[in-house]
Amino acid sequence: xxxxxxxxxxxxxxxxxxxxxVGKKEIVILWPDGGEPKAYDxxxxxxxxxxxxxDFNGRILYCIAHGWVFDGRSGRCLQPTGWCMQEYPMRxxxxxxxxxxxxx
Length: 104
Hints:
Layout: E1 4-8, E2 17-22, E3 25-30, E4 38-41, E5 55-56, E6 60-62, E7 69-71, E8 77-79, E9 87-88, E10 90-93, E11 96-99
Antiparallel strand pairs: 1-11, 2-3, 3-4, 4-9, 5-6, 6-7, 7-8, 10-11
């Protein structure tokens, strides 16, 4: 695994979405209310639109292009069903958020 620093932990807040870039890959970190922060590929599985500009209410992420709806805790698509956001390994060490996108 090749974890890379992506931002300071202090930039993350519960209930928020943080769009970031790792190398040439756009990712989003979602921290759902009452859950743990997770890193996902920022491309909507529908047409590749950036979810970094999506609407996140602390629980649900809405794609602004066509209204696909994702669960912030699991990345699972709720509408339509049968899809899922690609999750990346993430950790927090020494105050830095680190993500591994090497397997993508």
